[in-house]
Amino acid sequence: MWRSDPAHGIRDPPLSSTGHEQAQKTGAHIVDLMNERNIAVDKATIVIYTSPFQRCIDTAIGLVRGMAAQTQVSVQPPVIRLQLGLGEWMCERFFDEVCPASHLLSRQQEALARQQALTYAARANNNETILDTHGKNLVLPPLIIDYGYRAETTEFDFPERYTDMLQRFNQVREECVSQAGVGLPKDCKSNGPVVTILVTHAVGVNALLDSFRNRITRPVETSYCSVSCVQWKKSQATLDISDQSEEEEVEPVEFLGGGVKPRWCIDLEVSDIHLKT
């Protein structure tokens, strides 16, 4: 598994054993949330976009593992797509000197391909568990990795101001939501609803939520594997962005497009209650 040179002082660490357990709990919780919202899990196409950093990829795989354990019916394996635009800031030195963005993506795809090959071999021998030295199960749960997916974001521009980062996440959010059901691998067959899951870093959670709101709000603390749910409300097709709470500290929103935007309803925000039960 790829790691950056420790001499640079920058690492791409994997999840801890606790992190893997929390990711699986979160996957099970997502199934419960879908059931609560009357989304037919057995008919849904689930597309997971994840930051290409290792801890996010591990989280995405953990989500799939937890969803599979929680589902009582046969379901379409979720699709995983690596989305550079969901990555965290890092710094210019990381992508210029340690690992260019395109190199990071290709190396992570290679690692996933090797893990898939190991999974096929293990299942051929009726083996569902192969642990590495950290206790991580290297056998993948049922999933589809979309190696043909190409995100619009291919590099990072530095220095990136906070508002530039918000603009990036807004563009990525629009791309992921609009393209989730487009160009899926041939072995992905479903005519049901499309559920899009975005796996990102702490600062990215706030940026994504502000993107759905179409305004800047005060960032909130986000714990690992917190969950936010956003739904499209067809009955309220547009939102006047001038209608906002006086208590919120906000800035002008023109950088997110301004004017009238579709109404998205955030009905669950950075919740980690599922990890406390």
UniProtKB/TrEMBL annotation:
<dbReference type="InterPro" id="IPR051710">
    <property type="entry name" value="Phosphatase_SH3-domain"/>
</dbReference>
<dbReference type="InterPro" id="IPR013078">
    <property type="entry name" value="His_Pase_superF_clade-1"/>
</dbReference>
<feature type="compositionally biased region" description="Basic and acidic residues">
    <location>
        <begin position="1"/>
        <end position="11"/>
    </location>
</feature>
<dbReference type="InterPro" id="IPR029033">
    <property type="entry name" value="His_PPase_superfam"/>
</dbReference>
<feature type="region of interest" description="Disordered">
    <location>
        <begin position="1"/>
        <end position="24"/>
    </location>
</feature>
<protein>
    <recommendedName>
        <fullName>Phosphoglycerate mutase-like protein</fullName>
    </recommendedName>
</protein>
<dbReference type="Pfam" id="PF00300">
    <property type="entry name" value="His_Phos_1"/>
</dbReference>
<feature type="compositionally biased region" description="Polar residues">
    <location>
        <begin position="15"/>
        <end position="24"/>
    </location>
</feature>
